[in-house]
Amino acid sequence: MSLLFLRRAADIRSQVVALAAQGRRLALVPTMGCLHEGHLALVEAARAKAEVVALSIFVNPLQFGPQEDFSRYPRQLEEDFRLCEKAGVDWLYAPEEEQLYPPGFQTYVSCEALSQPLCGQSRPMHFRGVATVVCKLFALFRPCWAMFGEKDFQQLCLVRAMSRDLDLGVEVVGIPIVRAEDGLALSSRNVLLSAAEREQATALFRVLLCARQRYGEGERLASVLLEEARQHLFQAGIRVDYIDIVDEATLQPIEYIEAQGARMLVAGFVGSTRLIDNMALEGA
Ligand code: PAF
């Protein structure tokens, strides 16, 4: 089947109604475009679940603060269309800003506790923007599943909570991080890095790996693991936005790591590009 471009909310609605009448199910892959292998892994997982896969591309202004990289965020629509076709996406939605936020738009979704720590500290309105746009996409597409990468771990937790709390009926599926050969987590923002910065950025992965090794060897004090990680990042020339070890369910900091479910999350600036990464401390 060839790629169907959906442009207006009314077109989406009639396709969604027709699909339900046929008893076919939809999986949604929300993205901001500049697609890479990480997004393609989401599409593959979506295809394994649903008869029809929809992918949205929208660089959502609501989730960027005034000093952030909205205008600099990479965009490559033509190439994204080609990748979607190749990956077997069925429906593509790449709206203009006025379609999602027409004049007079004034309704927002905010998830309370999960949006406070970590990225929420330096990007106070970010998760309100994410929750609002994702809620709108869920309302438009009524998917059975929506696929989110674990790289944005806080976003994944928050969207899951939103779907549950608002009874949206969407199963939010987390997909493991896809990494380059040198370990760097794939991100659309990686294209903004110079060659030297690209090399520097691998320190983010290495500190996570090192913390997991030290945990495996028996270190249980989060403060020790975090201090070691901060030292490494400083030496690599990365300006740390935050680094923390938290409980995966609540995203609250853990001081003494006793049980499974502890995850280290990091955000740092490589040059002027802010990257994030994370890793469970338990595991292979
Ligand atoms: O992860 C992203 O690309 C965005 O935050 C999302 C989920 C598409 C919402 O704009």
Provide an overview of this structure.
The chain starts with a strand and ends with a strand. It has 284 residues and is an alpha/beta fold. It is built from 9 helices and 9 strands. Strands 1-4-3-2-5-6 form a 6-stranded parallel beta sheet, with helices on both faces. It has a 3-stranded antiparallel beta sheet with strand order 7-8-9, covered by helices on one side. 39% of the residues lie in helices and 19% in strands. Pantoate binds at residues 30-32, 60, 63, 130, 133-134, 152, 155.
List all distinct small molecules, including ions and cofactors, that are bound in this structure.
pantoate
Radius of gyration: 19 Å
How are the strands of the largest sheet arranged?
A: 1-4-3-2-5-6
Which range does the strand content fall in? Answer: 15-25%
Q: How many strands appear in the DSSP assignment?
A: 9
Q: Distance N terminus to C terminus? A: 39 Å
Main pleated-sheet profile: 6 strands, parallel
Low-confidence region ranges: none
Number of helices: 9
Overall pLDDT score: 97
